[in-house]
Design goal:
With about 130 residues, the protein is an all-alpha fold. The protein has one domain. The chain is built from two helices and no strands.
Length: about 130
């Protein structure tokens, strides 16, 4: 029973670590997209002697990209908070897993001691039977 619980906790830890990896991957994608968008803001321009409407459209475009960046930053913060919460869950699962591992080791030690004790008793009975038989 304890072994099954231990294996269950290990499986849950692995699932949470995979989930964390996905979240971190998404955060990395967001960071790359923010970087690319910032580069687009810096590189976007109009002709030197273009119409005033070109400058207005350019400013609208830059404002839209800045809004997009702010949305990405909010999503990134939300994902980071999810990663933090997930880390707390992983730590708790690891603690529980370590407890079950300790119980398994203690049970193994107890069984080993019982086996040694049974062998000692068996050897003592054998010696007594040999002594009585002779």
């Amino acid at each position: 029973m304890i072994k099954k619980l231990y294996n269950l906790k290990k499986l849950q830890i692995d699932q949470r670590l995979a989930e964390k990896s996905q979240l971190l991957s998404r955060i990395h994608e967001i960071e790359n997209e923010v970087f690319e968008t910032n580069n687009q803001i810096v590189m976007t321009s109009v002709n030197k002697h273009g119409a005033i409407s070109d400058f207005a459209i350019l400013q609208l475009h830059k404002d839209t990209m800045k809004l997009h960046i702010s949305k990405l930053e909010r999503e990134k913060k939300q994902l980071e908070s999810q990663v933090e919460a997930l880390m707390e869950v992983i730590i708790e699962l690891q603690k529980e897993s370590e407890q079950f591992d300790y119980l398994l080791k203690e049970e193994k030690k107890r069984k080993f001691k019982e086996m040694i004790k049974a062998q000692d008793e068996e050897a003592a009975e054998y010696m007594q039977s040999k002594y009585i038989a002779s």
